[in-house]
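Lab notebook, bench 4. Still working through the backlog of constructs that have no structural model yet. Next entry is a single chain of 370 residues. Request: give me the structure tokens for it.
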Amino acid sequence: MDCIRFKNVCKDYDGTSVIKDLNLEIKQGERIVIVGPSGCGKSTILRMISGLESVSSGELYLGDKLGNDIEPGDRNIAMVFQDYALYPHLTVFDNITFGLTMNKVPKDKIKKRASEAIRILNLFGIEKRYPKELSGGQMQRVALARALVKRAPYFLLDEPLSDLDSQLRTSARGELVKIHGLYNPTFVYVTHDQVEAMAIGNRIAVMDKGKLQQMDTPENVYNRPVNTFVAKFMGSPSMNLINAIVIGNRLMLGSNNIEMPEVWLDIIKSSNENSVIFGVRPEHIIIENINNKGSFQIKIRYIENHGSRKCIYFYLDENEMIATVDGSYSVDNLGSLYCSIDWSKVHFFHKDGSNFGYAENTKKEMELIG
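Model written out:
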């Protein structure tokens, strides 16, 4: 079994803890994306798997073997770095095959694997070029090809697309998923880009300050964040979070009070708390031109046009919020509009940031909301 398992793993640098009591299992053959802000420890996790960093305490298993003391060269891992690390004096073909040549793989196997990688990653015609003659996208594909030909059971990628433009990033994401589908390695990908994480991962591990915040499917990380950090980090634009108070059956959002559905009242009242953090994603705010039941007036601050959608920035009392609408939506001026909320898509958090939870039978309960 080519799984990876962290058991109470910590990593310290000069007395400073950068990974704190990490418990994480990556199943054989799945695509895991580790995501979080700069300095959260995600690259350190990857480097511990590869053996480039030691484990300060705890246990790291590669398959059924304790991997703490296994030398990097004995771990049978393919890794793609952020800077690609191509050899400037070697051609594209020789860069791709260098590791196989050093490991004395038979020449016919080297040629077969290299030809296959060149085909998959569309590197035909540039095999005799040197890295200085390549574009950023070509260098990225050469680095991927070099890792691919190794046919290792573990495939580690440390922000390999960060230097590419948006179009190349999109096409490269598709190539990575295609590569995984062909060979099915245990695939661990590190990025700070939550859009990339959602697009690539079967599961996502969200890190902050050296601690694992949530490990779940992209759908659950986005739709059921365990705390306000995950709620804000995952999503672009990020979730609106507002301090609010529940009084009776009404939610007080600043000077606005809104009748709450019974399902949410039951969840919140069970905690005996009335001071909450209310969360709603921009796409779940409904912008209206007229004052309907359950809506409230807002003051538009400015509008960003993204082509397929518009982001409307507005104030709800002193709280700045964002709503997204279809790109064809017309706003004649920056005056007042009205908005309402899709109650089937809202979130409530305790003051410490943890999630109140959701109705047990979500589909049935949410059909009754609104």
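Notes after review: Residues 166-183 form the longest helix (18 residues). The CA atoms of residues 297 and 316 lie 8 Å apart. Flag for follow-up if needed.
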